[in-house]
Amino acid sequence: MAEEKGWFDKVADKSKSAFKVAKDSSLGKGFISAYNNVIGKEFGMIDGGTPDGVHSGTRSKGKGLKAPIKPDQTKARAVKTDSEFKIVSPGGSQYYADIQPSESYTPKGSESNTNTGTDEPAKAPTVPSLQRPYSHFNNYSLINYKGTPLNGQTVGIESNKDGGTIYQKIDVKTLENPTVSKIIEITSANTKNMGYRYNYSDFALARYFNKISNTYLITLRRFAYPAADDIITPTAMGDDGKPVEIMQPDIARAVTWLGEAPGNSMAEILKFSHGFGWKDAESEMQTINSPSREASAGKFGSMVNSTKVLSAMANGAAGRGAVESNARDQNAGFDQFTNTYPNHVFGPLNVIKKVLIREQGLKFEQEFSLKFEYELRSFEGANPKIMMLDQLSNLLALTYNNAPFWGGSVRYIGGGGGAAKPLGNLAKLRSGDYLGFAGSIVEDMGKMFGGALKGGGDAFGALLNGDGGGVLAALKDNKMINNLIGGPAMEMFNTPQGSQAAASLLTGDPTGNWHLTIGNPLDPIMVIGNLAMTDCEITFEGANSTQDFPERLVAVIKLKPGRPRDKAEIESMFNAGRGRFYLQPDDVADINATSDVSAYGNKDRKVEKGGFINVFRKVSNG
What we know:
By secondary structure, the protein is an alpha+beta fold. The protein has helices at 7-24, 26-38, 71-78, 113-116, 180-189, 266-269, 293-306, 308-317, 322-330, 384-399, 426-430, 434-452, 456-464, 468-474, 479-492, 567-574, 612-621, and strands at 64-65, 99-101, 105-106, 131-133, 142-143, 217-223, 235-237, 243-245, 250-257, 273-282, 354-365, 368-375, 514-518, 526-544, 550-561, 582-583. The strands form 6 sheets. Strands 9-6-13-14-15-12 form a 6-stranded antiparallel β-sheet.
């Protein structure tokens, strides 16, 4: 017969069960998703896993590198020289031909299931290395060009030692000004593509259609839920905690063009700023209280000082009388410079006393406005006014929501809601029915004592028979017993409230439902997801036209990022939304693992050994 589990084992089983429930909840999945983002599992993990996604992080204790960093290789890259750049090379291009493996590592979850909360088996295979060419402008990085949003070009890179044609030749078809028909034909060819499509109706009433090249096209889309940069092959967290492909169609879209005439300045829309947060740390004269007499005298000395007889004996032995002893006690906390502080300078005058130190977080700003213009037109006898109203409603679907009126509500916190209500029916008291109110008091008292005695007879009978379980079963619905026993138990285990929900479980996943494509849709300048629409201003311009309706509709839409971007995510905007452009070589120091020093020279913090800066110290100092 199996031995019954003890109390501790039962609690442990319930904890494991609770953890599994938390893991399967939306909050738990969000936390796991955030962790996977950090270790680079959010891109490419469906087809075996590649460390080319954004937010893949830098080397740390959580990643077992396949190959150690080699200071000699880092030194070789530091002193590397190149030849003069040439416009035409008769023997074939020399650029991007030096193919090297990128870093590869063991995902942190494979070392211990408790690190991520996933069911990932121990000793899982490492994330495979990618073969990519070295950058020509940064000696310590490989480049990871992903082609266009439609093709995700990687053909010829892995197998061709010269890097494949993608790095050395320009696709002539991408130089052509694409017609609307060509854009629709190509984007519709992939039947799985639901989020990156076009229709003729997108251009029908657009004011600058056929007036400006489509290489300057701007497309704004709204999705039903937050959108990443890549809207052709997006992924989301599945029920098992692993990324799965999702097909997300846009619910509304609008097009316009870059240029001064359309009111969309390229300089303003493509602009972004980024940086680090810094603050001043200033040295100063600190005033610190000296240890008290009791603390400095030890336990015996404290006993002497706190006893009048012993204290008098000690002061007398030291040659101090009552006046001297009292003066010493009264002046113990006196600072003679307090009242004249403005007239005193502590320390030397000719000093440098400020340093800049890093604050937590990175700064990134990218806020802009887009202008969309539409003209009243008639097609095949359709009513122009109705078509313009149709276009207006589509813009509202792109930028606004329906909503019911909400008159507000009340939310109670604190312990006030737990008090018992007064005895008696107060409504009868207010109406002057004093006899009825007295009767209601008697009725409530009967309910109170009846509840207290509920199950009492059965419990007493079980007690006489020595049936402890029967006593508890008889009283299980007795609220008085419940309060007497359950109350102390809840206090003992700090439940049910415990602590309030912490605001430290932000996942970093996209929160903005808008997506922007800037430039030729077949080979865009930039794709930007996770955008938040903050404002839309709609105006009507021009003279009244058909059916006395204004001839032009103008919408100005303001957008900003859902959260700041780091370096890898900025690269992703220009890399078809498919991940960072710079990869970390397998055996060269990581340029992202730099050292930031505190105002105390890092004496106040634990600094991890290794990384970029220490490798470069070895290169410099041997």
